[in-house]
Alpha/beta fold hydrolase
Amino acid sequence: MTPGLSVRESYDTLVVMLRHAEDLQRLQLADQHVAFVDRDPGTGAMPLVLLHGGAIDHRMWGPQLDAFPERRVVAPDARGHGWSSAATEARLCDDVVALLDALEIERAVLAGISMGGGTAVDTALEHPDRAAGVVAGGVGTSEPVFEDPWALDLFAQWQRAEAAGDAQAWMAAFMAFVPGPHRTREDVDPEVWDAVEAMAWHTLKEHVVVGPDGIPVPPARPTGVNDTWARLLRVAAPVLAVVGAVDGDDHRKMAERLAALVPQGELAVVDAAAHYPNLERPEEFNRLVRDFLAKVA
């Protein structure tokens, strides 16, 4: 069991984490099919939109979906993930706004981990009137800066696995981010490990196409948002950068940099957690988000 994670937290994480199709709603938008969970108590409080990390899906937010009963909570699957459409070159921040429009949500607090955190920051930059606040976990912006040899080696392994069509090697490289560079698999709660791995396998199964030569074809990459670091001073929304204390060095540095560069930024470090603090320390993560919501929404 992860140090600092109570038996109750572990059990709750296991129970709620792999909820999926029975909770999903589906919408056909202009150029995509989007699957999402929508908890709407009808209170009129500022909605919270949860944006998942790369290669996984909305189920990573299992410990958060019912943790904020006073407000509407929406957790979509991004293109190329979960039960949504295949990946295209569309900008993920534009997809967020398209979903907000379809759900008639004028403004929301956007919370994301990893890729989802970058998307949340992008949305605040590109659509500032739609972001009432941003929670970005384990990331700075959608233009990550990696210098640590540990991370660079993993990305090199990842690229080699993609080129060779080696799903097992791809998964091994991806899953190394769960414990991070300072721990091993044995330090991660087994339920957290298994759930992240199950989501990633689902992504590979549903969203990776095998070409005629038998080699998997990498999904299309979303179009990026440019000059994000240079533009952070323009972010009008309050930003909470959250990072696990044992996440990779680059992820921690990027979170620190994000909090320092935006006009209304703060940093929170979650002990005994790496790249997925919302899963490893759900009660602590939820408390941080709840305190942030009380200030901004």
